[in-house]
Amino acid sequence: MTDEPIDDRDSPASASPIASGSPVVEPRGRRPPGVSDETVAALGKLSEALEVVEQARGMLYGFHRLTGTADLALGEAVEGLRAAGHGALADQIDRTLVGRNVLEGRWTFQIVEEYDAGYYAAFRAADESAREALADGRRHIFEAEMKEERRTQGDPGHEARP
To answer: How far apart are alpha carbons 56 and 120 in whole angstroms?
Structure first.
């Protein structure tokens, strides 16, 4: 893979991101000199793993939101049971389920906070540390090179950058 511009849109001098209003981070995806194919592939795998962790984190937030929504709806159901004259059943459900911890001592927000502060933070730090140590902190080198290999140069919708 070469660092030479493919066309005018690939050249940093062709258009200033500031002047065009475009949030281009163009050279960040480029491979620094001396970084091997093996290193780019390994950093690409690390980035892929982080993306899966990001998706898992999103699902954890989804779990948090769904569980909270269910608890609020449960509270409304308890009130409905009370209003319908089923006070004993409403009291039992209220006592055993409404506001209950989903894990010992934890509501879902606490699970999310613990995940974010622990595993998620450590994973992001490992990714950043590896990129800083091996690729001048550059992100998505593997993907940027794949894009160059796969795009049809000069065709609309295949531009190197905005």
So the answer is: 10
